[in-house]
Specification:
Helix content of chain A: 10-25%
Structural class of chain A: alpha+beta
Number of helices of chain A: 11
Order of helices and strands of chain A: HEEEHHHEEEHEEHHEEEHEEEHEHEEHEE
Largest sheet of chain A: 6 strands, antiparallel
Radius of gyration of chain A: 23 Å
Shape of chain A: globular
Radius of gyration of chain B: 23 Å
Shape of chain B: globular
Structural class of chain B: alpha+beta
Number of strands of chain A: 19
Strand order of the largest sheet of chain A: 3-2-1-4-5-6
Distance between the termini of chain B: 41 Å
Strand content of chain A: 35-45%
Helix content of chain B: 10-25%
Largest interface: A-B, 79 and 81 residues
Distance between the termini of chain A: 34 Å
Number of helices of chain B: 9
Strand content of chain B: 35-45%
Number of domains of chain B: 3
Oligomer: heterodimer
Number of strands of chain B: 24
């Protein structure tokens, strides 16, 4: 897990005024007839790995850089540098300008212009992180490892026990009227354990994330890791069957992330989404309502501004199974004849913005619908607690879905024997229509989607 | 990047910096900085040594000498292509893909080049440097038909500059990607359950990368978190398997002169006729075992700690005829191209995904299949290899581990597995 580098936040005290000054200055070098956008970022990070009662590694670092977009005659050029040295700034602007000369003129290519939507205030900065001494962070990593080793006699190894934190500050200024700053802190602990021995070994991981130091919960991380590894002990290759699959909250979050790439306005405009041309159509079960809302401060991806400096906003994507909208940045919106939804994201100063989700959630099922309740509703099937091969087996263009899975069979509405080395397959299109239950057990997981227990019918298991 | 017929993004960037590692006992302190002034480097060194300070101070004066390969005589230092010449290649690829069939509705062609200069010095007196140029060209196509959309991808990538294109035809890459997308429009769902699988030469090497390559990395071994721990000298694969990791091979994608710890790349035989002979080592893990690094200490950038990584990992060719292997398979799956994979090194369970596959019926390649993952357990699957052909080739890939990505090569000749679980949707 790494710290997020794409961040924006409403202005509060402690704005990175030095970064803003650099961005202002570089934007001021724009020539007549060109638009310039300057993204300046600075980050700090600490990472500690504990092993065998000692610190295996401790990393501390500061990095800073600049990314510049230049638009001349509807041609876009981009250049970046991992430095804020004075000489580098002008060279990077010159390089972006030069790159623009090679682009194909495109009437839709333009920088964001303020659209009057007010930004919500979300506080994503925890001052305490900087004031906690490194020795306390080291102690936490060591304690986490010791706790995991002692948690259960069946745990034979702690593969890693990590503490990490980071902060990112960003200033964004353009000649089209954008001028924002933002900052964000994050912290995490994560532990991975091995239960059993020899051929019977099973692994499990757990973590806890927060904006600062104090909210990190080693009990939760350890319990998760231990439960997940120990309950898989004795797992055998599962059966081939067509059945209902219950995805645990972490896996469901990954599923939503995968589906989200088909909801990108750019993918849709370029015919690379199975949702293209289907606005207003029924694309899923009536129980499926999907919203991206980075203005909700509880979400990990919460943000006041998007990566082009427009206010983030709540966007309803699927409502009661009906496809209602896509996520757009400025260029993809223009291409589709709509307005930006404030959904630009970018991977730090070395990346260009594009539309993407930050904070997906499903409308929760009936109150009290936790994992046990969903298992009870399903009765018979497979509970999946880990999933592999998402990048090699899930295609958001064709919709083909085939992943490796580990988990437990569901019998009489309860978790039964553990299984491994099986695949779970369907298509994303069919899965949306085959939704059996959505949990009300929302967990604000790291990443771009919340976790909620999810049951999907008519999945093909392939095993023995 | 040429997308949807337009040059959408020409992006360039650079960074330079230093990573400083201080090792005391089993503890590593690490700091990196983009500030290469003396003051900046000292600040980073202070930060890196802070964690080790309890171990006592003191100064050590070290003589360093340039011990390893300089990049001067290497083709790896050649310049990257001009922007204009690169865009011309992208246009040619776009045209070739679109000319492959009316069903092609989208083409994305990308070309990227990087040049990396590294200098490594350590307190044991090592001073090494390398210059590495890498160039990669890729084409992604979408084909649209009555059954929806399908995708096709092909790439070429070498540790070379622009002279990559003396050897590689971008038109051929584009046509392959387009053909892959078009043929899947008429594909039927992949089967489920266990079947014999024939892997075509090249990308099938991903099987070894996942089924055993990661599990042979010494960082997993020293923590006893690999299914291959303690198995040196034992039969871990069919006797047809001789597996090599070699960072010195020509201009393959995983090739370099020295690794990111200053150790020259070398050829390491991991499995010899089915017997496990050795693991892959970096400086720290080798030191722990009182041996030498095998030249596999790699890092994504100066901002990352080195780890044990593969370079070019491949199965040596066998003696069978590729066509005969198919002809002697009554029913199974022929995988022409694999896309990627993932492994749990502790259990050995791994997956790998097809991007071009067909049914084999009556010893003949018949209908195309939709993409699916295949799943298996490393030590079990390696024993099920019953034929290896002579038609060896390599495929470039990007290997991700613990948040770091590095370029690697995979390779093998056409080969058969007697049974693999196929994760399709057909019952």
């Amino acid at each position: 897990m790494s710290t997020a580098t794409d961040v924006t936040e409403a202005s509060t005290s402690g704005d990175p005024v030095d970064l803003l000054a650099i961005a202002d200055r570089v934007a001021g070098w724009a020539q007549t007839g060109e638009d310039v956008e300057v993204y300046v970022a600075r980050g700090d990070e600490t990472e500690i790995r504990a092993y065998g009662g000692e610190v295996e590694s401790l990393t501390s670092a500061t990095s800073a850089g600049i990314g510049i977009r230049v638009v001349v005659d509807h041609r876009l050029g981009f250049a970046w540098a991992g430095s804020l040295d004075e000489s580098v700034l002008a060279e990077t602007l010159a390089e972006a300008r030069d790159n623009a000369q090679f682009a194909t003129p495109d009437e839709h290519v333009q920088l964001a212009v303020p659209d009057g939507v007010p930004a919500v205030s979300v506080d994503l900065w925890d001052d305490s992180l900087a004031s906690v001494p490194t020795t306390k962070k080291v102690e936490l990593a060591l304690a986490l490892e010791a706790q995991a080793r002692a948690a259960d006699p069946r745990i034979r190894q702690v593969d890693h026990a990590d503490y990490g934190d980071g902060s990112v500050e960003v200033a964004l200024v353009s000649t089209t009227g954008i001028r924002t700053t933002s900052r964000k802190t994050s912290g995490f602990i994560s532990v991975s354990v091995i239960a059993g021995d020899g051929e019977a070994s099973q692994t499990g991981g757990g973590y806890s994330v927060g904006r600062g130091f104090d909210g990190l919960d080693p009990d939760k991380a350890t319990d998760d890791a231990v439960t997940r590894s120990v309950r898989l002990l004795g797992a055998v290759k599962g059966p081939s069957a067509r059945t209902t699959v219950v995805f645990d909250r972490r896996i469901a979050s990954t599923l939503l992330s995968v589906i989200s790439s088909a909801l990108s306005g750019e993918a849709v405009a370029k015919g690379r989404s199975f949702f293209a041309g289907r606005i207003g159509e029924l694309v899923g079960d009536a129980g499926l309502t999907l919203v991206d809302d980075p203005t909700d401060p509880r979400t990990y991806g919460a943000s006041a501004y998007d990566a082009e400096g427009l206010a983030c906003r709540r966007n309803v994507l699927i409502d009661a199974g009906v496809l209602r909208g896509f996520l757009y940045d400025t260029v993809s919106a223009s291409r589709s004849g709509v307005s930006s939804t404030g959904s630009a994201v970018r991977g730090g100063f070395s990346g260009t913005p594009g539309p993407g989700c930050r904070a997906l959630t499903l409308a929760p099922g009936p109150e009290g619908y936790d994992e046990d309740a969903v298992l009870g509703v399903v009765g018979e099937g497979l509970f999946v607690q880990s999933m592999t091969g998402v990048h090699s087996g899930v295609n958001p263009i064709s919709g083909d879905f085939s992943v490796g899975a580990e988990g437990l069979m569901i019998r009489d509405g309860k978790l039964a024997e553990p299984v491994r080395e099986i695949t779970v397959a369907s298509t994303l299109q069919r899965m949306l229509h085959s939704l059996v239950a959505v949990g009300a057990d929302v967990e604000w997981l790291p990443g771009i989607a919340a976790g909620q227990t999810l049951a999907v019918g008519d999945m093909q298991l392939s095993g023995s | 990047m040429l997308d949807d017929g337009r040059v959408e993004e020409l992006s360039s960037g650079r960074e330079r910096g230093a990573g400083i590692r201080v090792v005391t006992g089993e503890t590593t302190g690490f700091a990196h900085t983009a500030d290469l002034s003396e003051a900046g480097l000292l600040r980073a060194a202070e930060a890196a040594s802070a964690v080790a300070r309890s171990g006592g101070g003191g100064t050590k004066t070290v003589a360093v000498g340039l011990s390893a390969v300089a990049g001067g005589d290497s083709p790896r230092a050649k310049p990257l292509g001009s922007k204009g010449a690169t865009l011309e290649l992208l246009r040619r690829a776009d045209e070739a893909a679109r000319a492959s069939g009316d069903a092609i509705t989208q083409v994305q062609a990308g070309c990227g080049g990087s040049r990396r200069e590294i200098l490594i010095a350590n307190s044991e007196g090592l001073l090494a440097r390398d210059q590495q140029a890498r160039t990669r060209f890729s084409v992604s196509c979408v084909a649209t038909g009555d059954t929806g959309m399908q995708t096709g991808f092909e790439s070429a990538a070498r540790t070379l500059g622009f002279e990559l294109f003396d050897e590689v035809s971008v038109e051929e890459l584009a046509e392959l990607a387009a053909k892959r997308a078009i043929s899947k429009l008429s594909a039927r769902p992949a089967p489920s359950g266990e079947l014999p699988v024939v892997l075509a030469g090249g990308s099938g090497g991903i099987l070894f990368h996942e089924a055993c390559g990661h599990g042979l990395e010494a960082d997993h071994i020293v923590k006893d978190s690999s299914v291959y721990t303690g198995m040196v000298g034992q039969q871990v694969a069919s006797s047809l398997v001789t597996l090599v990791d070699d960072g010195t091979v020509g201009s393959e994608w995983g090739t370099y002169s020295v690794d990111d710890e200053g150790r020259p790349a070398q050829r390491n035989v991991l499995i010899d006729k089915g017997i496990l002979t050795d693991y892959l080592w970096d400086y720290l893990r080798a030191r722990k075992e009182g041996r030498k690094s095998s030249g596999n200490g790699r890092r994504q950038t100066y901002q990352h700690l080195p780890m044990v990584r593969m370079t070019n990992t491949f199965l040596l060719p066998g003696e069978d005829d590729a066509d005969e292997i198919v002809a002697q398979t009554p029913r199974g799956v022929y995988v022409a191209k694999l896309g990627g994979g993932q492994v749990n090194t502790t259990t050995g369970d791994f997956v790998f995904g097809t991007t071009e596959a067909y049914l084999i019926e009556g010893g003949k390649i018949t209908e195309p299949l939709r993409d699916a993952n295949l799943i298996g357990n490393g030590p079990e699957i390696l024993k099920r290899i019953d034929a290896v052909a002579t038609d060896f080739s390599m495929t470039p890939g990007t290997c991700g581990k613990d948040g770091q990505s590095v370029p690697v090569g995979c390779g093998q000749a056409t080969m058969r597995l007697t049974g693999v679980t196929i994760g399709g949707t057909a019952e």
